[in-house]
Write a structure and sequence with these properties.
heterodimer; A: 560 residues; alpha+beta; nine-stranded mixed sheet; seven-stranded mixed sheet; 15 helices; B: 318 residues; alpha/beta; Rossmann fold; 2 domains; elongated
C-alpha cells in the first residue's frame, strides 16, 4: 500500500528556529508580539489594549510598541475564510457589541438535508447543528473590523509580513524573524530586495490559524504535540451574487460524498444567504480520505449540480472562491501544553475546533482573550513570567473551550465507521453531554491513510464556467495575484510514486501540483506552480509542508 | 483649466506613451496644453514635442538630469506648476513616471488617479477595476489634479500648430533631491520592440509543446515587426524569460494585434491582453477558452500553421 507519509518533505523544524541575528540596535523591540491577524490574534490585541489602557504604568515600560500583530496577508482578513456561523459569546466577553459588527444578522431558520443524486430528504437538525442564537458573518470582513478595533486600542499592525522563524534564545522564545522580500526564484536578492528583521518581544503569541507554520515548529521544538496526532478537513467555498438569497442556514450531508465506510468520505456542505443578494456555499471534506482522485474543489462543483442547489444559484454569478483546512482532531489532539517559555499558542493553530458543531471562531477569540490576560499578568512588575504564562493553560482548560471539546471528543473518529452509523452515535454523544464513553478511538495522521483508486474522478462535472468552475479560474476568484518569480515555499518530495503525485494534484484546490516526467520505475516528478497557492494547508496534512511565502502573497479574500 | 503633460524621453527619442497622452490632452478642448521635458539635450527635442499639440513646451535642460531619477523631476514639475498655475497634470505610466507622479502628488498636495485608460473633457477619468472586469469613473475633488495613464492608452498623432512657444526653465533643486545617484544602467539585449511598446505581439503558450518551438513565435514576430510574449505556464517552466510574461502577474498589454499561439486563455492570461484591438488565436483544442474572446480563432496545430503563415507574410511583404 502506498502512503503519502512514506515520502516526507525535505523539511526540518530546526531550519525555522534561530537566535536573533540583527545587531542589538537594529532589532525591532515590542512588548507582546502576536503572529496572525485572525480572530484569535486580534482578540488578544484588543484585550491587551484594554488592559494596558487601564494600567498605563505597564504600557509605559513596554516602550514605543507595546503590542504588534504581524500578518502575512495583504491586509487583515485577506487570508480569513470560514463558514462562518459564529457563536457571539466570545465576542461579547471581549466587550464588543455584535450589533456594531459587519454581519448578516442572527440565524432564524435552519434546515438539514440528506442528499442523494436527485433528491433531498429534510431531517430534524441534530443537536450539534442547531444554530439558534448564532450570527452569520464573513470572517474576512469581521477580521478587518476587529483589526480596526485593535489599532484603535494601540496595537501596531504589520500586514504583508510573514513570520518565518521562531527566535529562541537560551530555551526561551524571544520573538520571530520576518521573511525576506524581493528574492528571485533562486533565492537571490533582486533590485527591490528587503531582508527580514528580528522582531523581539517579551511575550510571543502564535495565533496563526490552521496549519500555522511557526505553531508547528514550536510544537516540535518544545515537544508539545498532544496525545493524538492532529487531523484536518478541507473546506472549499464560493460566494455567489444571486437574484434572491435564501433565508437561514442550510446544511447538507450525504451526496456527493459516498457514504460507505470503506470510502472514508466524511464531510458535508453549508449554504446560507448573506443579506439579500449574496449566498455562500461551501463543502468540507475530511482529509483522512483515501481515494487519490478525491478533490474537495470538484466535489463542491458536483454539489452545485444537484437540482435543489442549482436552483438556489440560478441567475447568479460567482464572485469569490477560497479554500482552507480545518483542524478536526478535537480534544485528544490538543497540545500537551499551550505555552512554552516566552510563548503562548491560540486558536485554530492548536486545533480549537468543534467539528460536530462546525464551530471554532469563538474558541479562537476566547483563547486570544485568555492569552492576553496571561501575557499581561507576566508583564506586571514583580510577576514571575513562567508562572503567569502557565496560567493561560489552566485558564483554557477551565473555560468553555475545553468543556465543549471534551463533550464531543470521540465524535469525529466515529465517522470513520461510515456516515449513518457515525451520525447516530454523534447524536447520542451530544444528547448525553459526553457521558456516553465509547473509549478513545485512535486517529491516524491524514498522510498515513493508504491510497486507493475507486474511480472517484469520473463523477466530477466538466466545468462550464457558469455553474461549475475549473481550479485555475477559481484561484483568480480568490484574488490571488502572487508574484511568480519568488522562491518556492512548498516543500514536497519531488520524485514520488504516481499515486502520491496524483493525490496531491487532486487534493490541491488551487492547481499547484502537476505531474511531470515518468521515471520509468513507477515514479514521476512533481512540478509546482507555487504562486497559485492559496495557503489552505492541505498539503501539510497529506505529506508535504507549507511554509510562508513572501509577505503579501496568496489570496485576497474580502467576502469569505 | 490648463493642462501640463510630462513628456518622457529616452536618449533622443520621445516616449510614444507620453506623446499619446499629449495628443489626448490636446483633444480635450483646452487651448492651454503644455508639455514639459526634463533632462540633457531635451531642448533639441522640444520642437518635436510641440508637433503633438502642445501650445507651450517647458524645457528644463540640464545634463546632470539625464539619469532617470524621479526626485529632481518632481522639483522641475513642481516649479513649472507653481509658476504657471497648471491645474491638471497628465502623465503616461512608466517605471520613472510612476515615481514622479507619486512624489509630485505629495509635494504639491494633489489628488492622484492612477491606471486610467481614458479621460473626458470635463476631467472624468476611466479606470479598470476588479481585474479589468468593470470600469470606474473617477474624478478629483480639488486642484491640482494628477492623472497617470496605463501604457498604450492613447495613440500619438501630430497636430502641429507651428506656433508653440518654447520656454526655458531653471530649477533650484532641493537638497534631498540630489542625494540619489545612478551608479550604472544596463540594457537588456533584445531585438525588436519591447512588449509594452509593440503594436503587434506574438505570444506563445504551453501548446507550443517545447521551448525550441518558441522560435516559431519569434520568427512570426520578426516578420510582423512585433514583440514576443509568453504565458505564465511557459515562463514557470523556464521556456521563456519572465520579462516576456503577459497576464495578471506579468505585463498588461494592449497592442493593435495580438497573436496567441497554443494559449488556452486562462483568465489569468486574459486580463493581461483582453484590451488588445484584434486577437487572433491558434490552438488545437476547439474548447480552449481563448476562442471565446478572440476576433479570429483557428483550430489547428501551431507547428503546421505558423511556419506557413510566416512564409505567406514574408511573400506579401517582399
Amino acid at each position: 500500500m502506498t502512503r503519502a507519509s512514506d515520502y516526507p518533505p525535505p523539511f526540518s523544524p530546526r531550519e525555522f528556529v534561530a537566535e536573533p541575528t540583527d545587531p542589538a540596535d537594529e532589532r525591532i523591540e515590542v512588548g507582546v508580539l502576536i503572529v496572525g491577524a485572525g480572530p484569535a490574534g486580534l482578540a488578544c490585541a484588543i484585550r491587551l489594549g484594554q488592559l494596558l489602557e487601564e494600567h498605563p504604568d505597564v504600557a509605559e515600560r513596554l516602550g514605543e510598541v507595546p503590542v504588534a500583530v504581524v500578518e502575512k496577508g495583504k491586509q487583515p482578513g485577506s487570508h480569513l475564510l470560514s463558514g462562518a456561523v459564529v457563536n457571539p459569546r466570545a465576542l461579547r466577553r471581549l466587550g464588543l457589541r455584535v450589533e456594531d459588527m459587519p454581519s448578516y444578522g442572527p440565524v432564524h431558520d435552519e434546515a438539514v438535508y440528506v442528499l442523494t443524486r436527485r433528491n433531498a430528504l429534510r431531517i430534524p437538525p441534530p443537536p450539534t447543528m442547531r444554530n439558534h442564537g448564532n450570527w452569520i458573518f464573513s470572517l474576512s470582513q469581521l477580521g478587518r473590523w476587529l483589526a480596526e478595533r485593535a489599532e484603535e486600542g494601540g496595537a501596531m499592525l504589520l500586514p504583508e509580513t510573514a513570520a518565518e522563524k521562531l527566535l529562541v534564545s537560551h530555551g526561551r522564545v524571544v520573538g520571530v524573524r520576518t521573511g525576506d522580500k524581493g528574492l528571485n526564484r533562486e533565492g537571490q536578492p533582486m533590485g527591490n530586495a528587503e531582508p527580514g528583521s528580528d522582531l523581539v518581544a517579551k511575550v510571543t503569541v502564535l495565533a496563526e490559524g490552521t496549519q500555522g507554520h511557526l505553531t508547528g515548529v514550536a510544537l516540535d521544538t518544545f515537544g508539545l504535540r498532544g496525545e493524538e496526532p492532529q487531523v484536518w478537513e478541507l473546506g472549499v467555498k464560493e460566494v455567489w451574487k444571486v437574484p434572491r438569497a435564501p433565508r437561514g442556514v442550510i446544511h447538507t450531508m450525504g451526496w456527493p460524498l459516498r457514504t460507505r465506510a470503506r470510502y472514508r468520505e466524511f464531510g458535508g456542505s453549508f449554504i446560507y444567504g448573506m443579506g439579500d443578494d449574496l449566498l455562500t456555499i461551501g463543502m468540507v471534506v475530511g482529509l483522512d480520505y483515501r481515494d487519490v482522485e478525491l478533490s474537495a474543489h470538484d466535489v463542491l462543483q458536483e454539489l452545485k449540480t444537484h437540482p435543489k442547489i442549482a436552483k438556489l444559484l440560478r441567475g447568479g454569478e460567482r464572485v469569490q472562491w477560497g479554500a482552507k483546512t480545518i483542524p478536526s482532531g478535537g480534544w485528544y489532539s490538543l497540545p500537551k501544553r499551550l505555552y512554552a517559555p516566552g510563548l503562548l499558542l491560540c486558536g485554530d493553530g492548536v486545533g480549537m475546533v468543534n467539528i460536530p458543531r462546525l464551530k471554532g471562531v469563538h474558541y479562537a477569540i476566547e483563547s486570544g482573550r485568555l492569552a492576553a490576560e496571561s501575557a499581561f499578568a507576566s508583564l506586571q512588575r514583580g510577576a514571575t513570567p513562567a508562572t503567569s504564562l502557565a496560567s493561560y493553560d489552566d485558564a483554557v482548560r477551565s473555560s468553555f473551550i475545553n468543556d465543549d471539546l471534551y463533550e464531543v471528543r470521540d465524535m469525529r473518529q466515529v465517522f470513520g465507521r461510515g456516515f449513518f452509523v457515525g451520525g447516530a452515535l454523534a447524536s447520542a454523544m451530544t444528547v448525553s453531554k459526553g457521558r456516553l464513553d465509547l473509549g478513545k478511538m485512535r486517529a491516524e495522521p491524514d498522510a498515513e491513510q493508504p491510497l486507493v483508486r475507486s474511480g472517484r474522478g469520473a463523477r466530477y462535472p466538466t466545468p462550464d464556467g457558469k455553474l461549475t468552475f475549473d481550479k485555475l479560474s477559481s484561484v483568480f476568484a480568490s484574488g490571488n495575484k502572487t508574484r511568480d518569480d519568488q522562491p518556492n515555499h512548498i516543500r514536497v518530495e519531488r520524485r514520488v510514486p504516481k499515486d502520491v503525485a496524483e493525490l496531491w494534484v487532486n487534493l490541491c484546490p488551487a492547481q499547484v501540483y502537476e505531474i511531470g516526467t515518468e521515471g520509468g520505475d513507477g515514479t514521476v516528478t512533481v512540478n509546482l506552480a507555487p504562486s497559485n497557492c492559496v495557503q489552505c494547508g492541505a498539503i501539510t496534512a497529506k505529506g508535504g509542508r507549507l511554509t510562508p511565502p513572501e509577505g503579501g502573497s496568496g489570496p485576497e479574500y474580502t467576502l469569505t | 483649466m490648463s493642462i501640463l503633460v510630462f513628456v518622457e524621453h529616452h536618449g533622443s527619442e520621445l516616449q510614444k506613451g507620453s506623446l499619446g497622452v499629449l495628443t489626448k490632452a490636446a483633444s480635450l478642448g483646452d487651448p492651454d496644453v503644455a508639455a514639459v521635458l526634463v533632462g540633457g539635450g531635451v531642448k533639441a527635442l522640444a520642437p518635436e514635442a510641440a508637433k503633438y499639440g502642445a501650445s507651450k513646451v517647458f524645457v528644463v535642460e540640464d545634463d546632470a538630469l539625464e539619469p532617470p531619477l524621479p526626485q529632481p523631476r518632481v522639483d522641475a514639475l513642481a516649479k513649472v506648476i507653481e509658476d504657471n498655475g497648471y491645474e491638471t497634470v497628465l502623465i503616461a505610466n512608466s517605471v520613472l513616471a510612476a515615481d514622479v507622479a507619486a512624489g509630485l502628488a505629495a509635494r504639491i498636495d494633489a489628488g492622484l488617479n492612477w491606471d486610467l485608460v481614458d479621460i473626458t473633457s470635463d476631467l472624468v477619468g476611466k479606470r479598470p477595476a476588479l481585474q479589468d472586469s468593470v470600469f470606474l469613473e473617477v474624478g478629483w475633488k480639488s486642484t491640482p489634479r494628477i492623472a497617470l495613464f496605463r501604457a498604450g492608452s492613447f495613440d500619438a498623432s501630430t497636430h502641429d500648430t507651428g506656433q508653440a512657444q518654447i520656454v526655458d526653465v531653471t530649477v533650484d533643486y532641493a537638497e534631498h533631491s540630489q542625494r540619489a545617484t545612478v551608479v550604472g544602467q544596463e540594457l537588456e539585449e533584445s531585438s525588436g520592440p519591447s512588449i509594452e511598446d509593440a503594436d503587434i505581439i506574438v505570444a506563445g503558450g504551453r501548446g507550443l509543446g517545447a521551448p525550441e518551438s518558441f522560435s516559431l513565435a519569434e520568427e512570426l514576430a520578426r516578420t510582423l515587426g512585433g514583440a514576443v510574449g509568453a504565458t505564465r505556464a511557459v515562463v514557470d517552466a523556464g521556456w521563456y524569460p519572465y520579462s516576456a510574461q503577459i497576464g495578471q502577474t506579468g505585463k498588461v498589454v494592449s497592442p493593435k494585434l495580438y497573436v496567441a499561439l497554443g494559449i488556452s486563455g486562462a483568465i489569468q492570461h486574459k486580463v493581461g491582453m483582453q484590451t488588445s484591438n484584434v486577437i487572433v488565436s491558434i490552438n488545437k483544442d476547439a474548447n480552449a477558452p481563448i476562442f471565446e474572446f478572440s476576433d479570429l480563432g483557428v483550430v489547428g496545430d501551431v507547428h503546421e500553421i505558423v511556419p506557413k503563415l510566416t512564409e505567406l507574410i514574408k511573400q506579401r511583404k517582399s
